[in-house]
Amino acid sequence: MASAAIFSSLRRRRTPSLEAFLAPVDLSGVALLETLAAVKLELFSSFSGKSLPFQRKNSRSLIRKIEFFVVVLECLHDSGSTLPPTAILCFKESYLLLYRSKILLDYCSHSSKLWLLLQNHSVSGHFHDLNQEISTILDVFPIKEFNLSDDIREQIELLQKQSRRAKLLIDKHDETLRLKFFSFLDEFEKGHIPDPLELYSFFVEKLGIRDSKSCRVEIEFLEEQIVNHDGDVEPTVSVLNGFVALTRYCRFLLFGFEEDEVELGIGKHKKPKRGLITQEIAETFLTAPKDFCCPISLDLMRDPVIISTGQTYDRASIARWMEEGHCTCPKTGQMLVHTRLVPNRALRNLIVHWCAAHGIPFDPPESASSAAETFPAASASKAAIEANKATAALLIQQLANGSQGAKTIAAREIRLLAKTGRENRACIAEAGAIPHLKGLLSSPNAVAQENSVTAMLNLSIYDKNKSQIMDEQGCLGSIVEVLRFGHTTEARENAAATLFSLSAVHDYKKRIADEYGAVEALARLLREGTPRGKKDAVTALFNLSTHTDNCVRMIESLAVTALVGALGVEGVAEEAAGALALIVRQPVGAEAVGNEEMAVAGLIGMMRCGTPRGKENAVAALLELCRSGGAAATERVVKAPALAGLLQSLLFTGTKRARRKAASLARVFQRCENAYIHFGGLGVGYAIAGNSAAANRDSSFLASDVSVSISLSVPVV
After folding, report:
1. pLDDT in tens, 254-263
2. Which spans of this chain does UniProt mark as ARM repeats (predicted)?
């Protein structure tokens, strides 16, 4: 029965007392009886006369038996009899039984009403287990060894008979309500919306859930059970998601949008918990395995395909590469024998399972093969999808026609609804939320603005919604305005994260960079923002820098200066070096970076103390600076102190890509008139010879030559 206590305490979000599992081994005789009497009195005073929402018959039966135990203990205490060993053992078992009973009764008293309904059979089983333990204790109890009155003996014998005959009791009233709850879910499963009058009767009249606040408490409790769900506990996560969606719909249908507890003033609202970037790209960033990312776009591959050289790319990226007229492999430079794209189903399967293991939504492109769709991530049930669609319709109606307070609440709920599942994001956008959210981006209310821009961020994670956001007139400009002048830090940071999400589409990178003030605001956030703001800004700037036409804008907006300054900032240095490595590919970019006084020193510092990927990006940036920046830039790099030793270290201990770049950079130095001064006698020639093949292959530079941590859209609260 200890498992029942643990089960109960977990569901109540409280740790059970150690006394629930340890008998008082050092007590005997009168002291043991007094301890038992105190425990039983505490339990009796807490629950006697208290009406529980469910399990009333089972709880009353258990409390009556405990009351009788109190009477027996009082008689034994008054008699002054010496307790035999068997009796002491029985009373110690009774001690454990009492604590388990208290935990179970406390659980029934404090748990969510809906959760108790769903667990009706399981909780009834726990009460039955306690009855069986009472029966066992009474069977073993040495009643004949005590001088008890006939009345007490008769009551003990009667209790023995009742306990032996006791069967599992499932309250018919509770079971009827449970089945009714499931029937509402079945209605949504069939594509029908339940009758509002029946929903009102069930939630308000029968369950006593009479306002929006208590309904929200029920939702939060169910969501916590999903987070802490054990695989063998019924109902399943999919079904629980359906009940959460159903209850959320009823909350707005039955109780509307006016809530006294919602503070609409600046700084008075309760900030949601933050998780991974799909939880609104919050403070934690998840790095995808390098093999799961496309060498061209650096994004997580959604539809990996193999080309004739045996290399794997994301279908959209390699298709665009071929459409631009290229007939070589982007990674190896080999000529393509043919242009057929063969789906890499094995890799895609690994990516899907990795996403599922880390709670990352995997949204395959519409063009993906039907065979690939046999590996979906855990998807919501149809009932949950239909209930969320109905909820989205109510929320968007309030966004369109509600009061200012109702609009703020609706934006917050859309933000929450869009945090997980592409089905939710799709149905919200299809129902027309984006134009109304755009209107709230310019709201003078800080909470409304923050919720609307974060909702926009969550919606943008779904690829199809990116085009709706970009095509909505004035929407991009409004997001940039929030980035520049947002009322709260979180609003500005989430606006930057939204631009990062939108810039995952190659065709949008130029539009975003050309939007007035966008790159300048990202550069300012990189210089002055919080650690999370800097992360959002640098990843957005990196994405924008992968488009060659954005180089001049990055220079004019002082983004290059901000990126150079970020080379010494922990957490963003790696991405900053990657962005600089892309910018210096063009002569104008190389000139701008070369003119930055701390650029070379910052990259050298990254080679010395950076992460393996940071070192790769730093040596790649220095190599491209020499190639594109002319003699003056090459001389500045060559004269950098300690570079020779760092290059030698990379040639022997760096990653494969870092070794290739280091070998190429050393070959550049060999052609300089000062090469012997800087590298003579250091053994670099040996390293170059050993890496000559790698150096020869490094004749071109792609986005794949820059390695950064990919921040996955993975949504918050």
Report:
1. 988 765 444 4
2. 432-474, 517-559
